[in-house]
Design brief:
Length: 181
């Protein structure tokens, strides 16, 4: 039975309909190359100005001062907390390529944070700040720029989870949200 009160969400622009403005916005991700089909980019194609601004920022986070495994574990933790299925599916693959183990990914899903990084993500998500104790522990291993990149990464991927959940972005073909539910 169909819910007659169901609101139609913003749907991704089909790949073949990406226009010059969208392609220009996506060029930040891969200069000189057309990006492959993606439901997320299809969503961003609906608003090229937003796409260009956000993807420029997001590219910095992807190339930031954080070690890749640290970045990916932080992204997975915020995706898990925010129930960001799309981000989870994408970043499990990226994390594994970066050397993150199945055990570390399982720790991300723990109800009680078992690692300093998970505790930091949880504090940022719950309190919009880090406690003095967590900040002190993190700063023993991360410099100022890395701390900033961590906070902005958690915030940006929390925002992405919010947007992708709101607009009900479906997984791309071939992506699996294994161990998500």
């Amino acid at each position: 039975m169909t819910d007659v009160n169901r609101v139609t969400r913003v749907s991704p622009v089909p790949y073949e309909d990406w226009d010059a403005d969208a392609l220009d916005a996506f060029a930040i991700l891969a200069p000189g190359r057309k990006m492959p089909p993606s439901n997320v980019l299809g969503l961003f194609a609906r608003h090229p100005d937003l796409a260009k601004a956000f993807l420029t920022f997001n590219k910095h986070l992807f190339d930031s001062t954080l070690p890749v495994p640290t970045r990916e574990l932080a992204i997975l933790r915020i995706a898990w907390r925010r129930r960001g299925r799309y981000e989870w599916a994408q970043h499990v693959l990226i994390a594994k390529r970066a050397g993150v183990t199945e055990e570390q990914i399982a720790e991300v899903r723990a109800t009680t944070p078992g690692t300093l990084l998970a505790r930091a993500v949880d504090e940022l998500d719950t309190d919009s700040r880090l406690s003095d104790a967590t900040y002190a522990e993190l700063s023993a291993n991360l410099d100022d720029r890395q701390l900033m990149d961590l906070v902005f990464t958690v915030g940006a991927y929390g925002l992405l989870a919010m947007a992708f959940n709101t607009f009900e972005v479906e997984l791309d073909p071939g992506l699996s949200a294994e161990n998500f539910d």
